[in-house]
Specification:
By secondary structure, this protein is an alpha+beta fold. It has three helices and ten strands; from the N terminus they run E-H-E-E-E-H-E-E-H-E-E-E-E. The longest helix is centred in the middle third of the chain and has 15 residues, at 103-117.
Length: 173
């Protein structure tokens, strides 16, 4: 299932159409395995970290150890941005992140992580456990976050170099 997207608005200075939403979603699902998450520290300074993420049914998901800066930042301010790179696009997602604790949803998204990264996640007490994580992630638990998408930018990196913007939900009004 893909996200229902409004038609992209052209935002580039080139005489090129906005990329198709299908190309953006393909980049989010199959693009570079590392995404970059930007959050805001309590004092207003930005915090950016790489992470593994998955795009499922029109939402971006990622994990964090609850003791890490990104989790602490999101507890204070859920607004965030995630960037990704694919063969044809640089992609920026803006939205709000919320912890997922529903066991069925955790299991469903764990399967996507296992398929994409080979990360052997199991669900325990409303979060993930695994025999290993990223060196900077620390030990489990790894909490799952879902980003409710507000705006997506697709910036062409190959011919015809078109760029587009899509608004969702409240941001569309």
């Amino acid at each position: 299932m893909t996200a229902e997207a409004p038609e992209g608005k052209v935002i580039s200075g080139y005489d090129a159409p906005a990329p198709s939403w299908e190309l953006v979603e393909k980049g989010l699902v199959h693009g570079n395995s590392t995404y970059w998450l930007s959050t805001v520290r309590p004092d207003g300074r930005p915090h950016v970290m790489p992470l593994f993420g998955v795009w499922v049914d029109g939402s971006m998901y990622f994990t964090s150890n609850p003791t890490k800066r990104k989790a602490k930042n999101l507890a204070e301010n859920p607004h965030c941005a995630i960037t990704a790179t694919s063969d044809d696009l640089d992609i920026v997602i803006e939205g709000t992140a919320a912890k997922v604790t529903d066991e069925a949803e955790l299991r469903r998204i764990a399967e996507v992580y296992i398929d994409k990264y080979g990360w052997p996640l199991t669900v325990e007490d409303g979060a993930y456990s695994a025999p290993f994580g990223a060196p900077t992630a620390g030990p489990p638990p790894y909490e799952l976050y879902e980003v409710t998408v507000e705006t997506v930018f697709g910036l062409g990196t190959s011919e015809p170099y078109g760029s587009g913007r899509w608004h969702f939900g409240e941001a569309a009004s």
